[in-house]
Amino acid sequence: MSTDDPSDFPGAGPVAGGEPDAAQELAEQTDMDEVEAARAANRFDVRRIIGVLFLLYGVVLIVTGLVGSHHVKHMAAGINIDLWTGIGMFVFGAIMVGWALARPVMPEPPEQRGRGSGRIRRAPAT
Q1: At what angle do helices 46-67 and 81-102 cross, to 10 degrees?
Q2: Which residue in 14, 109, 114, 120 has its CB near the most CB atoms, within 10 A?
Q3: What's the sign of the alpha-carbon dihedral 39, 44, 50, 53?
């Protein structure tokens, strides 16, 4: 038994090239949890929900504007209001979904975690 080998001492960590230690495993698990949390946040991102609803209602109005009766289509001063509103809602929904896909929610970088906004918070004046 050599006293130069750090693995001979109780509580000594693994030597280089050995198994990863508990702190590294915990860091990897924490990173995986953050990635999973970001995926869940992206699934229920309000931009996606609003965008999909507007897309759905836009399609319904476009179909109504195209296949509805002639009398209903031209009640608003001869303008097919269902069709134009449906197109507007569809475009808005597409923009919202595109924005949510282009800029997904990301977890905070490690150097920013646990830090506040930097503002000094004071007790309210009484």
Answers
A1: 150
A2: 14
A3: positive
